[in-house]
């Protein structure tokens, strides 16, 4: 069976050589003529976290904002998070170090290449497969025991470890708050739900999408849903590009400076028996400007059997997914390229 591997070629390197034609492996005829929504009615919901944790996450929050959050998770699978209280210095350092990493000469970046983690292009399984117009550095950030420092930048940025330590613990804090709020909205035991994600694997994907002379022909990331619990995205240099599937269209996400973008992953879709949606998204490329982002993925703890929660299967509801262990989940993820919602489709039960 083919396995996920990282191809150590670099689009950034390719672009720096002033290419005149786009190599055919990057060209996507399927995106020609696809509809992209423009209406302002079609905007990703914005959630103000300060209205939800006024009183230490226990009470005093705004019911209206809670409803908005619930709807966002049900109908969009995405929301922009403002007034989130993530340490500003931690964010700023992440921005600086990620920029510095991608500015390194390609030889130094390639020193971070490996099998599943590392620098390069993800999910390359065959010679024929179309390639994404972007490079990444992917690594396990938490728990500490999951770290493989061989794929972390060895010299520059000098502060990389320190920066990731701080940022990843801030993301961990955010994850705990968010899954707690989601549990409350789902009417299930908050502590138990928080525990499912406690000490789960946290991985980071630093994405760098160079400009492309003909952006209408390429994609920065192929359409996919995230095979994780939740993802928290920092759109680092404020260049738009992310689009999400909504109502049959691709809806562009307009960056709100300082906001984080949160999305529900496959694991929460399964646990919630489809009440919360893990939505497909993709990245389009800009003609002049690069886009840089940091996605932090939060998985359930490896001991959790991921399946629809019995407390949500009430009143004649049927289970929409079969359960899978985290090992099985990882194997499924690594045996396929990024391809829409195919992981969820594999776990879907045919109830009809
Ligand atoms: O760069 C982005 O906006 C999206 C990144 C993403 O979807 C991912 O890393 O899974
Ligand atoms: Fe994603």
From TrEMBL:
GO terms for molecular function: 2-oxoglutarate-dependent dioxygenase activity; metal ion binding. One of its GO terms (biological process) is morphine biosynthetic process. Its cofactor is Fe cation. PROSITE patterns: FE2OG_OXY (PS51471). Residues 200-300 form the Fe2OG dioxygenase domain. Gene3D superfamilies: B-lactam Antibiotic, Isopenicillin N Synthase, Chain (2.60.120.330). Keywords: Iron, Metal-binding, Oxidoreductase. Pfam families: 2OG-FeII_Oxy (PF03171), DIOX_N (PF14226). Belongs to the iron/ascorbate-dependent oxidoreductase family. This is Fe2OG dioxygenase domain-containing protein.
């Amino acid at each position: 069976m083919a396995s996920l591997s990282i191809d150590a070629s670099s689009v950034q390197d390719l672009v720096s050589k002033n290419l005149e034609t786009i190599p055919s492996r990057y060209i996507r005829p399927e995106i020609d003529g696809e509809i992209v929504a423009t209406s302002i009615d079609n905007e990703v919901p914005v959630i103000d976290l300060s209205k939800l944790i006024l009183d230490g996450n226990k009470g005093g929050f705004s019911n209206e904002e809670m409803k908005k959050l619930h709807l966002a998770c049900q109908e969009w699978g995405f929301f922009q998070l403002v007034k989130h209280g993530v340490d500003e210095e931690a964010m700023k350092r992440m921005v600086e170090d990620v920029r510095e990493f991608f500015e390194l000469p390609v030889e130094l970046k390639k020193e971070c290449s490996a099998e599943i983690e590392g620098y390069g292009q993800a999910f390359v399984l065959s010679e024929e497969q179309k390639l994404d117009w972007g490079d990444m550095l992917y690594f396990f950030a938490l728990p500490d025991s999951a770290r493989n420092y061989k794929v972390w930048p060895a010299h520059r940025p000098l502060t990389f470890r320190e920066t990731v330590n701080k940022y990843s613990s801030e993301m961990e804090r955010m994850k705990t708050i968010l899954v707690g709020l989601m549990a409350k909205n789902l009417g299930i035991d908050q502590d138990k739900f928080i525990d499912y994600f406690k000490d789960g694997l946290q991985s980071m994907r630093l994405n760098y999408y160079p400009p492309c002379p003909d952006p209408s022909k390429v994609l920065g990331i192929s359409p996919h849903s995230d095979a994780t619990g939740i993802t928290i995205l920092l759109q680092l240099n404020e260049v738009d590009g992310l689009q999400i599937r909504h109502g049959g269209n691709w809806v562009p996400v307009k960056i709100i400076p300082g906001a984080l973008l949160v999305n529900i992953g496959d694991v929460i879709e399964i646990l919630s028996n489809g009440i919360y949606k893990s939505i497909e998204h993709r990245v389009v490329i800009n003609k002049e400007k690069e886009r840089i982002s940091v996605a932090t993925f939060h998985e359930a703890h490896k001991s959790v059997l991921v399946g629809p929660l019995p407390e949500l299967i009430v009143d004649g509801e049927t289970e929409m997914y079969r359960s899978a262990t985290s090992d099985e989940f990882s194997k499924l993820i690594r045996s396929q390229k990024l391809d829409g919602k195919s992981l969820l489709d594999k776990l879907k039960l045919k109830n009809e």
